[in-house]
Amino acid sequence: MNRTDRLYALVEELRACAPRRVSARELAARYEVSVRTIERDIGALQQAGVPIFADVGRGGGYTLDKSRTLPPLNFTPAEAVAVAITLSRAGGSPYSRAARTALHKIVAAMSAADSASARELAQRVRFLTPADGDDPASVPSVLEEAIRTRQVVRLTYVDRAGTETERDVEPVAFTASGEGWYLTAWCRMRGERRVFRTDRVRRAALLEETAPERPVEAMHDDIPSDYTFRPLELI
User: Fold this and answer.
1) pLDDT for 104-148, tens place per residue?
2) Where are the domains positioned within the chain?
3) Best CA proximity match to 62, nearest among 118, 117, 22, 16
4) Distance separating alpha carbons of residues 136 and 199, to the nearest angstrom
5) Alpha carbon distance 145, 163 (integer Å)
6) pLDDT tens, residue by residue, 194-226
7) CB pairs under 8 A, 24+ apart, for 97-101?
8) Distance between CA 7 and CA 3 in Å, rounded?
9) From CA 151, how far away is CA 147, in angstroms rounded?
10) What angle do CA 112, 113, 117 make, to 5 degrees?
């Protein structure tokens, strides 16, 4: 069994056994690998966002939070590849890290045969990019959390003239355009709305203060007449 198949099998094994804990020794014997290999595999799954929990000591082991996992899905290989193509375009977005873990969960929840077919089909898809092209700058994860929790965030920001300032802002929304990603926020230093290019944020730190509620629509009331705002739709 190769590692990809073993990772999938580990998730299914823990899902089937939950809430009972399974020791690394049990898993190692089942898959005919070392305990250290199982520990590395579990660590890789945890880093990918699979909700596996570990207890140490006698009676300890690994268990999976079934309430936060997907049952076997009826994704076809083509559907899985379509999702992968879409998520591959998330580079530089506020949720690029979440996109990677989401794709891993989808593939891990598929049957072994469909997962293998999807991987084979994915090898037939290629992206043409400039050899010297830079990857999109990642949006700081602090900004993602600030939007999610509506916390005030302290930014160190460099404007188009190269001037660096530090300011506290109340995050409201992310906006994407052909030029990149922007954070729309209420700037306490200026006392008004400001739009910040996320690739110009040098540092960001959450403050222990909840920002007041501000309607998203009110923060985008002066867009050019030849543009429209289209909200993200999940369906």
Assistant:
1) 778 877 777 888 899 899 999 988 777 776 666 667 788 988 998
2) 3-67, 77-122, 141-220
3) 22
4) 9
5) 26
6) 999 998 999 999 999 999 998 887 776 666 666
7) 97/138, 97/141, 98/49, 98/144, 100/48, 101/48, 101/49
8) 6
9) 7
10) 115
| pTM exceeding the 0.85 threshold for the entire prediction | no
DSSP string, the chain: --HHHHHHHHHHHHHHHTTS-B-HHHHHHHHTS-HHHHHHHHHHHHHTT--EEEE-STT-EEEE-GGGSPPPP---HHHHHHHHHHHHTTTTSTTHHHHHHHHHHHHHHS-HHHHHHHHHHHTT------TTPPPPPPPPHHHHHHHHHTEEEEEEEE-TTS-EEEEEEEEEEEEEETTEEEEEEEETTTTEEEEEEGGGEEEEEEEEEEPPP--TGGGGS---TT---------
Distances (CA, A) of 188 to 65, 167, 203: 41, 7, 17
Among 233, 217, 12, smallest CA distance to 111 is for: 12
Q: Are 186 and 193 in contact (CB under 8 A)?
A: yes
Q: Are strands 180-187 and 164-177 parallel, antiparallel or unpaired?
A: antiparallel
Burial class (CB in 10 A: 0-12, 13-18, 19+), 168: middle
- Which architecture, in CATH terms, is 141-220? Roll (2.30)
Q: Is the peptide bond before 224 cis (omega within 30 degrees of 0)?
A: no
Residue range 3-67 forms a domain whose CATH class is mainly alpha
Cβ–Cβ contacts within 10 Å for residue 84, how many? 18
Fold matches, 3-67 and 141-220: no
